[in-house]
Amino acid sequence: MAKHQCPNCHSPIPLSYLLFSKYTTQYRCVKCSALMASNRRRKITELTLAFFSATLYSLINSHIQNSLLATLVVFIVFFSILWLVPNQVELVDEQSKA
Q1: Closest CA to 85 of 39, 35, 36
Q2: What is the pLDDT of residues 64-76, one digit of tens each?
Q3: CA–CA separation, 80 vs 51, rounded Å?
């Protein structure tokens, strides 16, 4: 069972949507055409990771003294943890949107 999947048909959600979309971006499942959007868990996860990333950057940069390497390490950690947290999308009721 995939970690990030459509709540309706359970087909996998692309990594690109989870890592590079905004809070307001909606995703339509390729298989069943269900409309999905980020839920509260994703918003809390990203805010927590933003704070954690700033702290981690400060710690790494004070030890390594190479800004580019510190930034790269922080991005890798940020995106890896964001990918590991499951259930970040929920179905959107299209009837109420219209």
Answers
A1: 39
A2: 878 888 888 888 8
A3: 15
